């Protein structure tokens, strides 16, 4: 890492929900945050569910979010590295970010090393024990045949239907999961502890749970959940030595 530079992590903005009008207020707040961090950001990790719904037709993407996308393009063009991890609400993301914004897109957790610290970074959905209903649903949604079928819906119908289900269906929205289960019952904690038997990670950074969490797993390992930009407006920072959670 460059001296005096930092790495930022944020997730679960869910732009577009619950309505376009309400979303725009949060979008502007997020853009303002991006403006405040651009002076010392070496890299920005967006850990999924940036949008409450995203589907890429061959020639069409969902309308809106222009200020957010424009700001990300500006920061990327200025030399700040940006990485995007697909979440469960934008799991139909394909190559739009890569071709239009030059932002790499990842579909599974990925290892990174910064200043000799080993990170495992991802969205967090479908990891660890439990969550079986969602895991079954994800297999259906990510099946190539399912995506092919969905593309036959006119975008005006397909996007409207998906936005409705994204907000109303509790299995998709995750509304019932936004409560702390206790460290012994948090399935991402179980996942992290299992991964520690394979490799000595210093930091596990995930989103998805909508709850800011900073949990000490071992003397040299922590699990950080970045929370969300709906209720908490939280993010994580790595300054080269330590990870901290902050709210904007």
Architecture overview:
The longest helix has 18 residues. Helix 1 packs parallel to helix 2. With 248 residues, this protein is an alpha/beta fold. The strands form two sheets. Strands 4-3-2-1-10-11 form a six-stranded mixed beta sheet, with helices on one face. A five-stranded mixed beta sheet has the order 5-6-7-9-8, with helices on one face. The relative contact order is 0.17. The protein is built from eight helices and eleven strands. The chain has a single domain, classed as Purple Acid Phosphatase, chain A, domain 2.
N→C terminal distance: 24 Å
| Helix-strand string | EHEHEHEEEHHHHHEEEEE
For the report, how would you describe the main beta sheet?
6 strands, mixed
- Give me the Rg, rounded: 18 Å
Topology, element by element:
Blueprint: E1 6-10, H1 20-37, E2 41-46, H2 66-77, E3 81-85, H3 96-101, E4 105-106, E5 110-114, E6 117-121, H4 132-141, H5 144-150, H6 155-168, H7 170-173, H8 187-196, E7 203-206, E8 212-218, E9 221-226, E10 234-238, E11 243-247
Parallel strand pairs: 1-2, 2-3, 3-4, 6-7, 7-9
Antiparallel strand pairs: 1-10, 5-6, 8-9, 10-11
Helix pairs in contact: 1-2
């Amino acid at each position: 890492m460059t001296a005096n530079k930092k790495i930022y992590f944020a997730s679960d903005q869910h732009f577009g929900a619950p309505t376009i009008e309400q979303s725009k207020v949060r979008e502007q707040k997020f853009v303002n945050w991006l403006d405040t961090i651009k002076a010392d950001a070496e890299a920005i990790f967006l850990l999924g569910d940036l949008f409450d719904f995203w589907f890429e037709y061959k020639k069409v993407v969902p309308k809106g979010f222009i200020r957010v996308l424009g700001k990300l393009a500006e920061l990327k063009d200025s030399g700040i590295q940006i990485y995007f991890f697909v979440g469960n609400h934008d799991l139909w993301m394909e190559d739009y970010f890569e071709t239009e914004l030059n932002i790499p897109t990842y579909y599974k957790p990925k290892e990174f090393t910064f200043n000799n610290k080993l990170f495992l970074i991802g969205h967090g959905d479908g990891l660890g024990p439990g969550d079986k209903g969602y895991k079954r649903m994800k297999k259906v949604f990510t099946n190539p045949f399912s995506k092919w079928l969905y593309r036959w819906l006119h975008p005006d119908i397909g996007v409207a239907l998906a936005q409705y289900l994204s907000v109303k269906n509790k299995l998709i929205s995750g509304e019932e999961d936004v409560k702390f289960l206790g460290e012994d019952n948090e399935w991402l904690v179980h996942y992290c502890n299992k991964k520690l038997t394979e490799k000595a990670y210093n930091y596990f950074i995930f989103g998805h749970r909508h709850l800011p969490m900073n949990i000490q797993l071992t003397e040299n390992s922590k699990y950080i959940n970045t929370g969300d930009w709906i209720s908490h407006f939280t993010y994580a920072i790595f300054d080269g030595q330590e990870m901290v959670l902050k709210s904007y």
